[in-house]
Structure formats: C-alpha cells, structure tokens
Specification:
Layout: H1 4-17, H2 26-33, H3 37-49, H4 54-65, H5 79-85, H6 91-98, E1 113-121, E2 128-136, H7 140-154, E3 170-175, H8 187-190, H9 196-213, E4 219-227, H10 252-270, E5 276-281, H11 287-300, E6 307-310, E7 317-321, E8 324-328, H12 339-346, H13 348-353, E9 356-361, E10 368-372, E11 375-379, H14 388-392, E12 400-407, E13 411-419
Helix pairs in contact: 1-3, 3-4, 9-10, 10-11
Length: 420
C-alpha cells in the first residue's frame, strides 16, 4: 500500500509524463490514482513549483512555507513597453517600481574570511614585498541557499481565486498566433505598416476584443496557446533560427523583454475570468528564444495556482476538455493531412474518451480549415502584415487574432475573430 508521500510522487510523475493530466478534474485523478483530494492538490502545487524534479520541488515548497513574507518582483514592466503601449501607469506598476528589493548578501561575516599572502617582486627596484589580502571563503552551499531564498522572495505572489462550478461550462481557446514582435514593414515599400508598437497594441486589442465577444458564454477555463513566432528573430545577426535574414526593428534583447511583458499582461487579463492553461508551441523563427521566453514567464507565475504551463519543447501539444481533444502545433514540420492519425497514435486513451477533435496550427498566417473524418484541422490568422519579401512574393494575408469556444460536451460551438 503506497504511503501518502508515494501517492503524491506518483501523481507528480504522471504530470511529468503528460502535463495534460493537470487539466483533469480532482475527482478523476483521485479515482485513477487512489488519492485523496489533498494529495492531488499537493502534487499539482509541487509540479507548478518545479516540473523537472520532485525532490527539488519539495525542498522549494518547504522553504517557501517557512518564509514570513514575500516580496513582489522589483523589476517593473520595462519603460520601453510602457512607452510603446502609451498607457498610463496603474497603481500596480507604481507599487512594482517602488517595491523593496532585498539585497543579496554574498559576503560572509568577518570570521569567515581568511588571509591570503603572496611575495611580489618589483621589476624596477628589485625589492620584494609581502602582499596580504582577505578573501571570501563562504560555503557555496550557503550561498546557493541565499540565492534560492531571494529568488523565492522575488516571485510575484497572486491571491488564489476560488471559482464556482458552472452548470454549462465552456473552454475559451486563444492563440497569440505569429505575432512576430521585432518585424519591420514600412508603408512605402509594402503598403502596410508593422513594428513593435503595432505588434503589442494589436495583441492587447485583439485579446480584449475576443474576451468581449466571449462574454455570453460561461467560461470555466482558458487555453492560451503561445510561442508560434512570438519573436521575429533568433540570432545576433537578425535572422531566424536557421539564419534567414529578416527586416527588423530593435535589438534582440529589447524585443525579448517586450515579449515577456506582453505575455505577462495578457495572462493577467485572463486570470480574473477563468483559470489559464498556457501551452507553448516551438516555432521556426524563434525556436530557442521563444522557449526561453515561455520558461521565463512560467517562473514569473510559478506561485500563481490559477495558471498552469506546458513549456516543454515537444512539437505537438494536446489538451482534453470534456469530450474535446485539442491539439496545437506551429505547423512548419508536418502536413495537415497527417495530423489526425498522429493525434490518435499519440493519445490513444484521450482519443477514446472524446468525440470532438481539433487541431489549431499556425505558420502560414492565413485561414484554412478542413475536416479529416472526426478531426478538424484549422490554421489561424496572424495580426502581422507581410514584410518586403513576402509582399514581393505575393504572400498576402488578412490580419486578425482568433478565439474559439468549446462546450464541455458539445464540441466547438463558436468562432471569434478580431480583425485589424
């Protein structure tokens, strides 16, 4: 008979094997793993703290429970982000800027220092002198503990939002599809304008527009698909991951920070409505940077129990909601007509438990939708306009952000579009 700790570790390992299990109801997990409600909640909490190592997650959890207080992350939304969005600073950001930042004491006490000495010969005079200096011999383990403690304090703390169970639940699927932050397109060359400011403004405007359109449904969960070329480049020489040169605006590090703040702002827009499951798709423009970005934002929300992340580098991701099985991928590696069979092979259990099956793909910046038996494969529009090369080649697109409403037991019941 497994102990309580063994059951928690068993659940944790199940989440590692398939992060989609985090979306299962507590009752379902209790039944599958013969666990109590408290054990399921504990396993979920540990996985959110550290999805890579159960022991580390336990250690950080025990350490955070002993902290008397938390400090809000002292790094505010970047001044560049605020300038581009042209928004007035709200009280939250004011607090963030003025938040106390504890100093990291990397120096040991006086009695932990030791004397180092060395004879040095002066080349000009030929005389030798004994130089004496103090060096820090602080134990590295102690330093590591201090760093972990400070990182814990810097993590923003969000209050847990208790939700009432809906009688007619729906899932809102949103995708930040092909934002390409850092892309530059100028009117005199392409007939359309696109830059960092437009990318950020369109994303925020589009998400708010989709939320407004979804207001008539009882939303009890949000699937937010991120990645998918959120950043336009991935190299120092302004190229994609494979090195293809791009028309760009701004430095790579500026665009990374802008994208980080944009992700955070979008998620904070969604959390008051329903719990958010963030699913990262690897993509061809920013295969590395996009992954680092998603993992950074995951760390920001690691103490938020209403947000769950899947930032693994797997090319295809899945999400089960009632009788719905939803797959997402960037779409640059696999032909659409191969996706239905791949879904069935990679998810035999979920396939058998569902009736309505969907793929949401990206990459081509335009709308295509086709049914393959019981599976609908749909590519999503992008808010990004063509750059010079795509314009010359005739690759034009209708710019928009899209969302979808899935009923718990009736499949996709609505499509939402915010055009630009």
């Amino acid at each position: 008979m497994p102990t309580g700790k063994d059951t928690i570790e068993l659940l944790y390992n199940a989440f590692q094997e398939n992060p989609n299990r985090l979306t299962y109801s507590t009752e379902k997990l209790q039944k599958q793993y013969n666990a109590s409600q408290a054990q399921v909640q504990k396993a979920r909490k540990l996985y959110r703290i550290n999805p890579m190592d159960f022991v580390v997650a336990q250690a950080v959890s025990l350490g955070s429970e002993n902290l008397n207080e938390y400090y809000t992350d002292s790094i505010p939304a970047s001044e560049l982000f605020e300038t581009l969005t042209e928004e007035k600073e709200d009280p939250y950001l004011t607090f963030m800027k003025n938040a106390h930042k504890p100093s990291l004491n990397i120096y040991a006490k006086e009695d932990n220092w030791e004397v180092k000495q060395k004879w040095v010969k002066n080349k000009e005079t030929g005389e030798s002198s004994l130089l004496v200096r103090k060096t820090n011999s602080q134990d590295l383990k102690q330093l590591g503990e201090q760093v972990i403690e400070q990182m814990t304090k810097y993590s923003p703390v969000y209050p847990v939002i208790k939700r009432e169970q809906s009688k007619d639940p729906h899932l809102l699927v949103l995708s930040l599809a092909d934002i390409h932050l850092g892309k530059l397109s100028v009117t005199y060359e392409t007939g359309q304008e696109y830059n960092r400011q437009i990318a950020i403004n369109r994303t925020l405007e589009g998400i708010q527009g989709l939320l407004n359109k979804s207001a008539g449904f009882n939303i009890d969960g949000i699937l937010l698909i991120v990645g998918n070329d959120i950043l336009h480049t991935d190299t120092l020489n302004r190229g994609t991951t494979k090195g293809t040169p791009q028309d760009t605006e701004g430095m790579w590090h500026e665009n990374f920070l802008l994208a980080k703040d944009l992700y955070i702002k979008v998620i904070e827009m969604l959390v008051p409505i329903a719990d958010v499951y963030v699913q990262h798709n690897m993509s061809n423009h920013d295969y590395m940077s996009g992954y680092f970005l998603a993992d950074t934002v995951k760390s920001w929300f690691r103490l938020n129990e209403n947000v769950v992340f899947d930032t693994s580098p797997k090319d295809r991701k899945y999400f089960q909601y009632g009788l719905n099985l939803i797959g997402s991928t960037h779409g640059d590696n696999i032909k659409p007509d191969n996706l239905p069979l791949i879904m069935a092979e990679e998810n035999p259990q979920e396939w058998g438990e569902t009736k309505f099956r969907f793929w949401y793909t990206h990459h081509i910046h335009s709308k295509q939708s086709k049914d393959y038996g019981s599976v609908c494969v749909e590519s999503l529009r992008s808010p990004s306009v063509p750059d010079a090369w795509h314009d010359r080649s005739g690759y034009l697109n209708t710019q928009a952000l899209e969302g979808f409403i899935h009923s718990f037991d009736r499949g996709q019941v609505a499509r939402l579009t915010n055009y630009f």
